[in-house]
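I am writing to request your help with a piece of structural work I have in hand. Thank you for your consideration; the sequence and its tokens are set out here:
=====
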Amino acid sequence: MDADVVIIGSGIGGASMAAALAPSGKHIVVLERGEPLRPGPQDRDAKAIFGDGCFRSGETWLDGAGRAFSPGNYHYVGGNSKFYGAVMLRYREADFRPVEHREGTTPGWPISYADLAPDYTAAEALFKVRGAAEEDPTDPARGCRLPFDAVQDEPDIADLRKRLRGVGLKPASLPLALDIETWLAHGQTTWDAYPNTCAGKHDGETVLMQACVNGRVALWTGCDVHQLEIGVDGRVSAVHYRQDGKDKRITAPVVVLAAGAVHSAALLLSSANDNFPTGLANSSDQVGRNFMNHNCSAVLALHPLRRNHAVYQKTLMMNDYYHDDGQGGAPLGNVQMLGKITGPILAATSGLPGFIAQWIAARSFDFYAMSEDLPQSDSRVTVKNGQISLAWQRSNWSAHEALVKQLKVKLRQAGCPVVLSRAFDRTTPSHQCGTARMGKDPAHSVVDRFGRCHDHPNLFISDASVLPTSAAVNPALTIAALALRSGQHILETEFAT
């Protein structure tokens, strides 16, 4: 064997898995398709990032109608987390149970919140999360405070918090994996959707680099994995990848797939062979199915005579409509601040003339409304001749429309007479998940409650693929917690002495 464990992907899931396994002293190799992000002049250039898409991968997928589109994913050490908003929220306790929504009922999880709570705590410590969980009445039971105090509101955001309270809402501080002082020292911008090249955000790369220090963890970059080889015993016998124009393979008794919800499913499907003609881990026919992508909208609220001087802004959230619509009806979702939208960002993303975009952005308070997308069998990833197709069947949209409507009412009551909204489409990867769902029954799921594939006992999946539901909060912390839980299980079952 070339290693004890091979991990495919260095995003939140792969990095957290490496962190869980590193103290064991086992030889761990992380295969990453991309290279490290290096500091450069485009790091805080809004036009380059949002207008030119200079950091995007350039890959193309097909939608359900066969039309090509750019998916907005990234291939770097740390994966999409290099650009994430650093929000680290726990799923609510109810999210692990079946929940009745306007357009259907979620299936529930094979584990409970209590099962994952210790791993949530460990993940918050690993990513050095800052926050004040006690401010949020929907925050689930926890045994301790967050590791660090919340990032402070800027003066205009502190005033906004008061105005939101004044109209009956319960704004709470966002839990953030962020070193705000380091971030701002390298540029006076928000971090949301900006590349992390200064270690201001705690992302997959920062966690992985610490794992390399703590154990025998090797990161191999530029490795495009294209096939998993299966032996006669049904176990993964080798990982095939291409690096520097050469085809290579690596072997290990344990393989962890953490390439992201779309690419992990695509790799399993592309690894089909005579014994597994529909793809690996797919005896249930669930690989690639149940794709979810949060229903999201940007909501800009402004008063023509009031300016917003905030630089980063992203410190507040509201869960007033998380468990119901405020009147006992079905859940609507979560609302949080977007990173501050500036004139160049708005011009690049909306097509507005620069002077109009600048005028709006200087006065806007920018929100991110997020509602749960429900799992559906026909919402799926497929692969044909190496081409990925994503037929996303958006669901629960009526709940999202109701959330945006409620938010607009409250924002006008809070002193913002002009409120604009714009939904995000499939080109924005709004927390893709669900394509290799976790479950107890191998006939209806891909992995068990520890992320082990039902069909291949030495293959684990450790990314958003395994999420049975999307909930309505950012999934990063849940991915990390599941990876830590899975990593401990690997140590106890695969390497027990």
Observations:
- The CA atoms of residues 45 and 194 lie 9 Å apart.
- The first strand starts at residue 5 and ends at 8.
- The chain has one domain: 5-493.
